[in-house]
């Protein structure tokens, strides 16, 4: 499996690359080839006053490549120019990536918050599964907040087709997952579910599948605003990653998993993994 690992060469985006546990987790789910991508914004050039970007970029990329290769991965490097999220999506599509990994917030040497905005844009438009890796904020030497990326998963579902597709990610995540909490949020704004679906029964069936894979699973049914209740569940069970589809079944925009996933990327305390539609 191939993964795109996007970096803006900041201390924040470096945290994942330098973290042995994070890299080990990627290896456990079957990633063996990592494409390291850094995007130079179109409005930045090496001749800008006070910017020694070319040398910084070369030093950082060499160091990152050594670390990733030492962890046992094949590595390809892509240095491109353009709009970050569009170029990342393009590269992921071209190489047939199974996963894109991006830091949740970063401040590049160019004084642009490249990765922070890129994560939000990728959440809206990604065409491959996206892992938004939560990095410590407000410090000079940040660390990854949840190093064991897939150890404890919180799976949120509205029982839509894409939510079911997100659940299928456990077919490879299970090699690194020990515990999972499955949550459905019922809301009076749009109470309709696919015909014949009983939330607790359906969650129980999904939990049984996880138990067959050796994953301890529990189910939770809540009522209220989907994003708020998913985040409340995250606070209660402390997962390492929230897993959700990036589209849902509801016709109401607020209930679309597209908008919920965007909220999760912005507000979750841990990592967020989004699965786009087929």
Order of helices and strands: EHHEHEHEHEEHHEHEHEHE
- How does the helix and strand content classify structurally? alpha/beta
CATH architecture name of the largest domain: 3-Layer(aba) Sandwich
Q: What is the tally of helical segments?
A: 10
Which CATH first-tier class of the largest domain would you pick? Answer: Alpha Beta
Could you list the spans in which at least 5 consecutive residues all have pLDDT below 50? Answer: 106-115, 249-257
Overview of the molecule:
It comes from Natronococcus amylolyticus DSM 10524. It holds the Pfam family Usp. Residues 4-132, 150-276 form the UspA domain. Belongs to the universal stress protein A family. This is UspA domain-containing protein. This protein has 278 residues and is an alpha/beta fold. It has 2 domains: 2-133, 3-Layer(aba) Sandwich (Rossmann fold); 152-275, Rossmann fold. The chain is built from 10 helices and 10 strands. A 10-stranded mixed sheet has the order 3-2-1-4-5-10-9-6-7-8, with helices on both faces. β4, α5 and β5 form a beta-alpha-beta unit. The radius of gyration is 19 Å and the shape is globular. The two termini are 18 Å apart.
List the helices and strands and how they pair.
Elements: E1 2-6, H1 11-18, H2 20-28, E2 33-40, H3 53-70, E3 74-81, H4 84-95, E4 99-103, H5 114-125, E5 130-133, E6 152-156, H6 161-167, H7 170-173, E7 179-186, H8 199-212, E8 216-223, H9 226-237, E9 241-245, H10 257-267, E10 271-275
Parallel strand pairs: 1-2, 1-4, 2-3, 4-5, 6-7, 6-9, 7-8, 9-10
Antiparallel strand pairs: 5-10
Helix pairs in contact: 4-5, 5-10, 9-10
